[in-house]
Design brief:
This protein has two helices and twelve strands, in the order E-E-E-E-E-E-E-E-E-H-H-E-E-E. With 174 residues, the protein is mostly beta strands. Strand 2 and strand 3 form a beta hairpin. The N and C termini lie far apart (44 Å).
Length: 174
Amino acid sequence: IPSRNGSNQITSFVQQPSGSSSSSSSSGSGGQPTTAYEYSYLSGGNNGGRLQTVTQKRGAVGVRRTQNSYYDTGSANGGIGDLQAVTLQQYNGVGWDTLATTYHRYYKAGDAHGFAHGLKYVVSPATYELMLNRGIVPESAADAVVATYADLYLEYDANQRVTLMRQSGTSTWT
């Protein structure tokens, strides 16, 4: 469905069934595509239908993309469908270079101060890189280690309301 905004740019969206791709694009006033976004979804497994990549294109060429990974069965740090990491990548002409990764960790059923699928820690790209440079792999590090580096930590009450939010060394209680 195309539409025109106030800058005379045309935007169109194409929705596809789960497990395939959809896209949106913007065209300049000359009608030539300037930017397009292609969305791809996981097609199977426990996380089927979840967003896998968003690729920014100029014309038909991929420029940048985000790639999402999700927790699956048996993970100690999240449940099925919980977003594990978002990786930003840039195309170098041959393949994709990783620019940044944001890592997420969640509470599991029965964990103190949380609930199943409740966000527990977020590690920003800069902190993720710092941890790797120090020989710490965030995905396999113990909670106690991630806690010392996390940019965001959350605790919840029995009604799943945030009762403590700690951001990069500061704390807020509600």
